[in-house]
Design goal:
three-stranded antiparallel beta sheet, two-stranded antiparallel ribbon, 41% helix
């Protein structure tokens, strides 16, 4: 639940279970200790991930400025429809793709297929 580190000169050292700095170089050095609140950090990250997932629009294609040179993407991901199309053309099943990219849903694969046919008609 918690790790403890100390600043010792220019070095960061681990504080063992007894609170003693490990790998101290010279006796009598001043040790500044600090705690890393891992549970709080984890809870914050999990909350932010939930918020991002809630904003994701499944089954749509969009662009994100500065992400993969503003190519078409499955909305809310960094996965291009072309990547999914190439996987399908190489014989990957929908299940294989969903296993490889757990953030995708079947609707995302369907929109990637539709995007391929639209791209061919436009070209």
């Amino acid at each position: 639940a918690e790790l403890r580190f100390a600043l010792l000169g220019n070095d960061v050292v681990y504080l063992g279970p007894t609170g003693q700095a490990e790998a101290v170089k010279a006796p009598g050095q001043i040790v500044l200790t600090f705690d890393v609140p891992l549970q709080e950090i984890r809870a914050d990250l999990e909350g932010r991930i939930r918020e991002l997932r809630a904003r994701r629009r499944t089954g749509t294609i969009g662009k994100a400025r500065g992400v993969l040179a503003s190519k078409d993407l499955i909305s809310g991901t960094r996965i291009t429809p072309g990547a999914i199309q190439r996987m399908l053309a190489s014989g990957w099943s929908e299940r294989d793709i969903l296993d490889e990219f757990p953030e995708l849903e079947k609707a995302d694969i369907a929109v990637a297929r539709a995007h391929a046919s639209q791209t061919r008609r436009a070209g």
